[in-house]
Amino acid sequence: MLILTCPYCGVACDETELAPGGEAHLKRFGPGSTDEEFEGYLFQRENPRGVHFERWRHAYGCGKWFHAARDTVTMEVFGTYSAQVTEPPEEIRAKISAKHPGWSWREFS
Amino acid sequence: MVDLASALSEAASSGAIRVEEAGLCGMVTIRGDLTDATFTDAVQAATGIRAPAERGMERVGANALLWMSPDELMLTCDHDAAGDLVGKLESALAGQHHLAVNVSDARAVFRLSGDDGAVRDTLAKLTPADMSVGACPVGAVRRTRLAQAAAAFWFEAEGEAMVVCFRSAAGYVFELLKTASASGAEPGYFAGD
Asked: Closest to B144 (Cβ–Cβ): which among A10, A61, A64?
């Protein structure tokens, strides 16, 4: 069971109160991009064993989207943070580094 | 004249706790920027109730303001007062980005009463929310689900909880609450809480 704390309303939500939104921090490639960039944006996803960043929506509550950083192996949640950012905040990265020195995920580390 | 009726005509059941449909209740959805003092001041001027803290509620007489999300409040009142209150909100919030809608007839309201532990046990059978007194004290609003239906609930007092759901799910939620509070099926988990 995954329990994530919604950063907008502070409720500790059970996974079943949330709607999953897939991978976090995707950069959109639209008109004018190359075929490879567009394919990557549409189809190429991370499937890591370990540190992962995801989007979730507090569907049965305040209705807001947010980001979560967690470990896919241990189910440890490093933290949740605002949806209005394009990369993981420093404090979340520090928490991950404490557990997994030298971790990397896409272009973040 | 239209005969107004609530979803279940005040159906009730008495098992480990009493579950009753609260009948016609007034409800107004208010949306806007709750961090903006001019917005919350205008809501207070129209309703006479100050804006509640995060996940909290404020009650003045028959009316209460409930915190629903960072940009949404719900005003509960008497059913026939909702229309006037929307008018007051509209004039107090004129010129500001806001929404005030009378949703009274879109919802069903249930009152659960009895032993505080038994009320918490009943809800805990249906929701993933932590129903301990520490996590869900009197006056805290929790939006969550009851089995498969979206719902919100709060404790008005020890041993008295109010549950709000969509009117279309009223029958389902009433049956859930009735079954979960059946006599002889009390887990007693929150009995000493």
From this structure: A61
Q: How far apart, in whole angstroms, are the C-alpha atoms of residue B142 and residue B154?
A: 6
Please name which of B119, B107, B167 lies closest in space to residue B18, comparing C-alpha atoms: B119
ipTM value: 0.89
3-class DSSP assignment, residue B156 = strand
Q: What is the 3-state secondary structure (H, E, C) of A18-34?
A: CEEEEECCCCCCCCCCC
Mutate to test the interface with A, among B144, B163, B164 (most CBs of A within 10 A): B144
- List b or e across A26-51, with b for residues whose CB sees 16 or more CB atoms inside 10 angstroms: eeebeeeeeeeeeeeeeeeeeeeeeb
Which chain A residues are within 8 Å of B128, Cβ to Cβ? Answer: 13-14, 16-17
> Which chain A residue has the Cα nearest residue B143?
A61
Q: For B70-146, where are the alpha helices, taking DSSP H only?
A: 82-92, 116-124
Query: The tokens of A102 are what?
Result: 């030298």
CA distances from A102 to A50, A86, A94, A109, B146 (A): 12, 21, 11, 7, 43
Could you give the CA distance from residue A46 to residue A81 in angstroms, rounded to a whole number?
20
pLDDT tens-digit series, residues A64-85: 999 999 999 999 999 999 999 9
Enumerate domains of chain B plus CATH numbers: 12-23+106-180 (3.30.1360.120), 26-105 (3.30.70.1520)
Domains in chain A, ordered, with CATH?
14-24+49-109 (3.30.2270.10)
Using an 8 Å CB-CB cutoff, list chain B residues near A62: 68-70, 72, 143
| pLDDT digit string, tens, across residues B12-69 | 999 999 999 999 999 999 999 999 999 999 999 999 999 999 999 999 999 999 999 9
